[in-house]
Design a protein that fits this description.
Elements (H helix, E strand, L loop, with lengths): L2 H11 L5 E4 L2 H9 L4 E4 L4 H5 L21
InterPro entries: ADH-like_C, NAD(P)-bd_dom_sf
Pfam families: ADH_zinc_N
Organism: Oceanobacillus aidingensis
Length: 71
Amino acid sequence: MNKCYFSLYHLVCIGAKVSVTSRDEEKLRKAGDLGADYLLKTDRDWTAKMKDEKFDIILDSIGPALFPKIH
């Protein structure tokens, strides 16, 4: 289990609402299997769906590629 799935699993276990973004359908499926609440394709406009959400923590495994989309 890689560090992102490990973190996702533990966040779900403590009751956190977890959103996962990815271009990869298999990664999104696995995140859903581990209990993620939102599964969002990064090649679509996911910012509109999440605009009213508040985040306590963001785990980023890819770096600045998504920074411009997060306000």
